[in-house]
Amino acid sequence: xxxxxxxxxxxxxxxxxxxxxxxxxxxxxxxxxxxxxxxxxxxxxxxxxxxxxxxxxxxxxxxxxxxxxxxxxxxxxxxxxxxxxxxxxxxxxxxxxxxxxxxxxxxxxxxxxxxxxxxxxxxxxxxxxxxxxxxxxxxxxxxxxxxxxxxxxxxxxxxxxxxxxxxxxxxxxxxxxxxxxxxxxxxxxxxxxxxxxxxxxxxxxxxxxxxxxxxxxxxxxxx
Length: 223
Fold this sequence. Notes:
By secondary structure, this protein is of the alpha/beta class. 45% of the residues lie in helices and 17% in strands. It has helices at residues 26-39, 48-58, 78-91, 102-106, 110-124, 140-153, 171-181, 196-205, 215-220, and strands at 15-19, 43-46, 64-69, 95-99, 128-132, 157-159, 186-190, 209-212.
C-alpha cells in the first residue's frame, strides 16, 4: 500500500480529522467538517456534544461521523459505557472510539475487561468500535493482552492513544499492534501525528487509519 502513496494527499482517506479539545466550539467543528469534505478525509471525530452538528454537516457525503466514548479516562462502569455508546450510535455515529477499561487491565481482570468490551461492541450495533489502548501507559505484555481482548470482543480497530495521555503514537507501537492483531482488525495511530512524514511512518509500520487534528497540514505538506 505505501508503495502506491505518490503524495501526501493520498493519505486523506486514512485520516480521522479530530476536534477533541475540551474548549472546541461549533465553529471549529463546522470548519473541520468542511475540511473533511474538501480533502476527502475518512471521517470527523468529536465529543458527544458536537456529534449532531457533524452528522448534519457531513450529511452522508463521504466522511463518517465519529465520536469518542468514556474519553479520555476509560473509567466509567460498564453499564454507563454501553449506554453512552448506544446513545452515540443512535445520534448517528458510524464509528465510536472508546478507551479500554484500563483499571481492569492493570488489575489483570481480563474476564471483566472482555465482558466490558463485549457489552460496548454489542451496544454499538452497526457502528464500528475502535478500542483506544493508551499505549504510552502500557507494557508490551499489557498491549498484547489488550489487543487479544479487543479482538475477542469484536472491536473493528485497536488504537494507540487518546492524545491526552502519556505519549502518543510511535511507529514501534503501531508495528507491534499490527503484529498482534494481524489482518483481523484495523490499527489506528493517533497522538502526535503532525506532518506527512509522521503519517507516512505510521502507515509504513502498519496503520490503516490515522487520527490527527493537523490533517490539513498533513495532506498539503511534503514527505
